[in-house]
User: Fold these one by one.
Assistant:
Number 1:
Amino acid sequence: MKTGVFICHCGLNIGRVVNIPELVEYTKKLDGVDFVKDIQYACSDSGQEEIIQAIKDEKLERVVIAACSPKMHEVTFRRAVHQAGLNPYLVEIANIREQCSWVHGDKPKSATDKAKDLVRMAVAKAKHLKPLHRIKREITKKVLVIGGGVAGIEAALDLADSGTQVYLVEKKPTIGGHMARFNEVFPNNDCSICILAPKMSCALTHKNIEVFTNAEVIEVDGQVGNFRVRILRHPRYVDEDLCKGCIDDCSSVCPVEVSSEFDYTIGPRKAIYLPFPQSAPLVAAIDREHCIGCRLCEEACQPDAIKFDQPPEEIEIEVGAIIVATGWKPFDARRKEEYGYGRHENVITTYELERILSASGPTFGQLVRPSDLRTPSKIAFIQCVGSRDEKTNPYCSRVCCMVSLKNAQIIKERYPEADVTIFYIDIRAFGRGYEEYYKRTQEMGVRFIRGRVAEIRENDDSSLTLIYEDTLNSEINEENFDMVVLSGGLEPAEDSKKISNILNIPLGEDGFFDVIHPKMRPVETGVEGIFVVGTATGPKDIQDSLAQAGLAVAKILKLFMRDQVELEPYSAVVMEDLCTGCRICHDVCRASNIRMENRKAIVNEVACKGCGVCASACPAGAIEMKNFTDEQILAQIDALTEERNTSPLILGFLCYWCAYGAADLAGNMKISYEPNLRAIRVLCTGRVDPEFVIHAFKRGVDGVLVAGCRPGECHYQFGNYFAEHRMNLLKDMLKEMGINPARLRTLWLSSGEGTKFAEEVNDFVRELRSMGPLGNEIAVSKGVVDGD
Amino acid sequence: MEINREVDLEGKNFIYTQKTDESVRELKFNYERCNGCAICVYACPVRAIELGPIKEIATGLDAPPIILDHIKCTYCGICAALCPFKCFEFKENGENVEFPISLTKHARIIENKCTGCKLCEEVCPTGAIKREIAIKREDFPEKNEGLIGEVKIDDEKCNLCGICADFCPAFILIEKEVSPDSIMPFEQLLFDRSQCDYCKLCEEVCPEKAISVEGRRIKGELPDKFAKVWIELDECSHCDYCRVICPYDAVENSKTGEGRIVLFEERLDRCDPVGCAACIKICKNNRVWYVSRESGKIAYNKDFCVYCGACKYACPQDLIDVQKDRLFTKELPSIPQPWRESWEKAIERAVSEEMAPVSLRVVKTERRVSPVTVENQEEINFPDPDILESLSKKFDMVLENLNKPGVRLLIEKQKGNALKKLLEDPNARGKNKK
């Protein structure tokens, strides 16, 4: 089987740390490698062409690409391999950028050693890759979605999965909307970006979705089934295909620093910037408002992605239906002058607090107040700022109560000593489980005072004095706080009026879009074929927004008549001859996609999402997880342990949705950590068969890290729980054998926790270092070696 | 990418340079020419320029009117593009840069109207008018010997343009101080009979035919034009003196801005124009201010003002306000590049005299992941082979147990005896169980 390895320099992004000539020479000597080539930019058109040509010329059958994260370009390379005449699933990626060069910049030698290990593991897996086939279905109809927030993305994805072509138009340089910037979201306190980022990248790479960022709709005519739409794409002055998303090179030389609207102005950014580390597309943009034309970024950018002469572009499309998901904008708290926002340093808005609490925000999740960057110990929340207020907005913004309850909980969880007070008029906790959530917040020790705050005064030490009426006790009080959070309401998005004119759909008096009937036809507008979803029709929470998105999709599909879809082939499949009919897989599949027939298990491959919980419970090894088979993973472990390039040597099993994302994020944020980890990607930690872990220890690794989503956030719902109890058992087993159970570490984190990931790896390295190589503890206890 | 920024002083020029591997940008600032009008201070998008002690400078201190922070400076060139007095020279890799937007720079002598007279040159406050006299009396070798004649100057016709005096030493102009309220640089033309040989050339040289001579025309041709006159734009402040004084409408000039001067008349008693004269001194490039003969107080002639605003900052009593309505600019025709908007805003700020905005507050902390080790200090340790082998045997037993449905079932059901079964020796008890 002829295997080719392509090693990408990514300009200097990989090349400046990893010694690529050395890596190439090393790879050439690897068993079973027939062809090795290094490429400046593998993802560029010319890079892809080189790969395609080499596959054809060398008659390659398996391809390994050592480059950036598969989250970035796996789809690109699958396409390229397919163009060369191979099955698209015969390519394996070694992530030597996000999980190597970008995080080990201070240790080029170790990074090169790690890259060698990662390539060797990928080659080993590649040998076992099998051709896979997506289930193909025809597509004909098209939909325009205006607004790339969570509602727009959800609608776009649902439509795209049904086979409908979608154009997603977003005004900002990234999709994701407000949700992408929030820290955690109620009622289950999920990490916001972690549940959204997969959808963002899916929207971006989905073959049925064309995303136009930095773009706006300027003209629409025609009627249902046949709208002609003109889109104006503003230049971002950065070539989307050439930019590698490294951002440091250009933005570090940019002399213009402004406050970032993506941090709700509390954090800084440059005139050339990425809105946030998880931006999709992961491409820099130049801000027309602030760039002053020093041209330093142009010099600094290695792939020459900066294009100052990029003209605006007009695009004409035809669609059958339109979804308006233009969302909302935060109330400008300066309008409530008595609260001093903009004058008093330590008065911030609830949106700024979201960024401060976010692990990828300007403070990396550390709660600090602006005046001295210290953690405040006494914090007040003021509710209904710009809501239920005759002077600003008479309506209730619905979500702010829950948002403040949530933030109060998070602060109490992270800083149990903090004194948190919420000033409210009424607490409106209206959804399922919300009242309980309110109660829980009270029980956590958060103080609630009923009454509107009349005024905030700033003291000499930057603390704040609140003057308020406690309406339950009929008292007028004054009290000091370190920081005040204004719970600002939701207002109609800036361009609502413009969109209303272009689409000829009316706005209500409050500025939000009107629908035909608020109860019976909540997403339909006066124009047939145009739907409005999410906060564009008024304040609502994420779940209501998504429900509306789904409803609009259903209405559109009803209009189009359902066509066809295409699915990733990552399902489980039972190898009949090996199946012993023990039913364990049937029992562990919580999605009930496995049935028993004639004492053999059968997987419903269309419904199976591929978590792998069944395969890692099967005693007979009879279940094959496509693209993540036992033999592939065991081959990776064997390949890793063939050599030993680092000490302690850690093998990681990273769930693709959370832990792998967190590791990539650490890369995007260029956080250096110890280079001892070698990761194997799995779709879910539920895929981690105890056999894999035992096999790894048997082969002499010093530690195993199993990292997945936080409890309750598993993308397959229960996979991480399976992993946890299996790993706990294995820890007990290690202990029984005299091995320190801490050599097996589990880590549950969100894809937004890049810093935490790095810290955990460092901590694990520190711990393993103190234990010595595997088995050292046995030697010590037997007195073979002196313990030091 | 490495960026080096340096500053150097060469005479009255500050030279700021930014070097990278690929480019050198040089900003030269001539502080002698600068009057501290603060247009650049407001226009600078990164607040790299501050106004110096302008009141003191106006009353005699020798210091640069503006201070530029060469580290903050982005070398964008906005200051150079908008300076009305051309105090900056901006070069990229040694070449002049064409700015996307810059202040208009239009003034010229209309050649076919110009007689080559001396007036504009005399009144120009910056010395931007250059003049080359084509011929003088002394260039003619012939001389009337012993001839007695008569010279008459028609005062009605004579406009004191000064050509005759430049041409022949027999004419003497009596100069007077140019003042904004009386811009004529000469008050009288005198004739020195002892220098005259009645050659009659002056008759032809005078564009106004104001001189008549009884005598004998010596031989020789006079050129069509007495002198060549032009404006050096890099020195011109577009004050308009030349255009106003020219008797032949031979000057075109566009001012760089328009607006209003407001003098706080009610408080003028505080003004000491003779002792202080800050406004007069600071307005060296335009010469707008003077001491009124009637009131003895300060006064201005707005005809010569470009509304730069320097006097406003110079007056120690704050008696002057200059309100800019607009600056006149020209734009480079091209696809709008990403910085067009920032440049337009810089001009707006220069007009409204607002500083570039700064972020209200920026909250940012350092990430805190500390490395455990330093590269190359770690050695690679291998597990003890004997221990690994004994462990390996145990692991193989466990792996074998994992192939048993019964053990797997205990694991998945989280039964308490799962561990025991997992560690059991499969050869000892496994067989009979199956």
Note: Chain B touches chain A through 72 residues (CB under 8 Å).
Number 2:
Amino acid sequence: MTDANIEFHAVATTAEVTEDEPKAVSIGRMDIGIYKLDGEFYAIDDICTHAYACMTDGYIDDGQIECPLHGACFDIKTGKALTAPATVDLRPYEVKVEGDQIMVGVPKADD
Amino acid sequence: MSDDRTFVIIGASQAGGWVAQTLRNEGFEGNVILLGEEPYLPYERPPLSKAALLGEVTVDSTYFWQADALEEAKIDVCLNTRVTAIDRDAKEVVTENGDRIAYDKLAITTGARVRKLPIDGADLPGVFYLRTMEDTLAIRDAVQEGATAMIVGGGWIGLECAATLTKLGCKSIVVEAADRLCGRAVTPEISDWMLKFHTGNDVDVRLSTGIEKFEGNGKLERAVLPGGDTIDCSIAVVGIGVIPNVELAQEAGLKIDNGIVVDECARTSDPDIVAAGDVTNHPNDLLGRRIRLESYENAQNQGIVAGKAMLDNTEPYSDIPWFWSDQFDANLQMIGLPQDWDETATRGDVESNEFVTFYLKSGVIDSAISVNNPRDLRVGKRLMQGQKQVTAAELEDPETKMQALLKR
């Protein structure tokens, strides 16, 4: 699905993101976490919806990322909040890989 | 609605809020009544000594659930409502203004209250405690840049408060009765690190001492030390521990022993009453003994277990105790309760305030504390949970990938 309001940004190379080590990137003022899971790349908001913490500093287990501060778990593929204390999902972003570049789609800035 | 039962929760706190939410998450369709004596919806306490005291966040943003979310979940929240008795024979709770509310099941999440400082002048305006939103707002109102703030108690609350008041431009002085900081919770070497860290951040820490009395004309003006020396100060915050609010349960005849005695599923000695949070004395399988915890995670997870138990969905609660604290630019986290260990391993660099110290007992992590390294601590928690054998040498080796230890 292509949305005219979505703009893709090159944020990292495929070598920079491993299954154990996600990468935090910024697009404009947005903080986004890039993950690799079962060979695929995923992008979700990097700031926990519960309190200010970078999710990419957290711990990855079984397709979930666990917040380093208070332990809330989110589904890496969908951003869904899975455990307390989080009740709000992390926003997921579209990802495509071109060559060795990971591209993340975010809404156009000037809208 | 087919379910006409009413479940009542005393205490609109973190634990109480999670009991209520859990009832709904588990599909309970009866009435849920959440009674709280404060004028606020269930709120997060960690910001009270940090972001809320700094004035960086609004009261609303500390709520676990906003009013509309609670309404949507059909949780009937009654604020400014103090419960004065539990009538177990009638299965009713009695409120301060005489209302009687019938319950089919009851949860007690009354938490704890601050221990008062038993000295002259402790009731002077300017002497504060820090437990509730009200306390934080009052301290924030009273703080003036350049003021000297006397902090009584060098525990978690005292140290967080010292850090925040320093950030607000106060001169913070911490007096602690014991010979080291946070002595009830952490090991001596971590106390030493805390002392160095706070001193390095311009906090004046005085150990093995207390305040003889506070003096002032109608408001706090000075603290008198045991030798008779005085320190001029316009604000004081006392953080010398809390007392569990067991009285309602006690008067109702429930079993009490340093808290309301509950089983691993948060059930009290009355089959229709559960209890959760700071107020309970509960068994911890991993530690092999009963404990009463004053922590965020305990309030949340025991609250969830208590909610399930009200629906006869019994799920034992036996988490590894976990705490955290933010002081200046340091995030401290702790797992387990350091008590008994035969080996210590420090990973990272203590001097640069980024490390984890693991305490091992027979090759298994018994407890650990981290400074600015939550990720390795989290892996440590899983190693501890799985009772995995590790060596001090491999934990200390910076080449060791912590996650790899889990996978073998």
Note: The first strand of chain B starts at residue 6 and ends at 10.
